[in-house]
Amino acid sequence: MPVSRRGFLTAASVGVGAAVASTVGGPVAGANPFDTGSLGVAQDLLRSVSTGSGMIQPNGPLGYVGVTFPSVEEIAGRIRFAFPDGSVGDWLPLEAMDTAPDSGSAAAAELVSAPEGAVGYEVDAPQGSRATAFDDGRGAPRNYSLGSTGLLGLPIIPRAAWGAGDVSGNGWGAPQFFPAQAITIHHTATPAGPDRAASVRAIYNYHANTLGWGDIGYHLIIDPEGRIYQGRGGTVGGTPVFQFPPVGGIAPPVVTGGHTAGVNNGNIGISLLGDFTGAPPTAAAVGATINCVRALTGATGINPRGGIIYRNPQGGATRPMPAVSGHRDWGGTACPGNAFYPQMQFIRDIASQGWIPTGVSSAAFGS
User: Fold this and answer.
1) Are residues 214 and 248 in the same domain?
2) pLDDT at 24 over 60
């Protein structure tokens, strides 16, 4: 990457959802588009002002920063954070994002979690790059009930409860549905903030709006307490994962997500909220993952300990794979982290205990 192409992002190149600052030193224009009803206005996308020298100071709690690049050939850069006492932290590398739909994604970095107490950030990246800041719930605590909806005996927090936006009419196109073939397990690669729902919203906002995917890439997200959140939408009546609710043990087609590039059709994506590069997820999160795998494989007839020949229904490409895999099994990534990936076989083995093939009712699965 030529040196002349690098530059520090200023307010004129910092994005807030679809809004971009029009003047250096002035606030970003544009209303927050996420009025979630029962949650009130979720202040996840933060307006930004320039503090000079490329340092950007959001006007609210700083949780995560996402950076997009002009092209895939220019995915390179670094970020550092400022603190109230005027000190500035070390530069941190921006890592290329490995979660993706099959097509149509902006070149981007993984979300970066701001250190506790950070009040500003500076990005050194190729010219034309843009940064977006997100709240992860470090501000005043919110009091709300997430509630849950049942799917195969799983208590899943619906999209409306955690504050997902309306994906209808977003230009992404009609959702696609294909029979389930595989389950892929991820980590979000960024720590969970204190308000777990706000962390899920931040990922949703980054995927759906900043990156232009139209929706969050994962079908299900699991937080450190073992709560399960509905991810991808677009289904009939808002049913998690499937096109419509399973009836009589017959699993309908799966809505196509955007979590494992090139092999998303018929591939159910479960992501644990956190970065498990150096430390594993909580026992509660692993237990919820096992419950999800057991319920989904029982309903779809996928053997959690088996192998498959995955066939992409669009194009026909095939490859042998574990039926339940970590993202890295598909190649090109360290996801779901070095401290979590060794548990994949444990998850398969425990999920297979009590595994029941297609043909039984969802009542057979305990919550």
Assistant:
1) yes
2) no
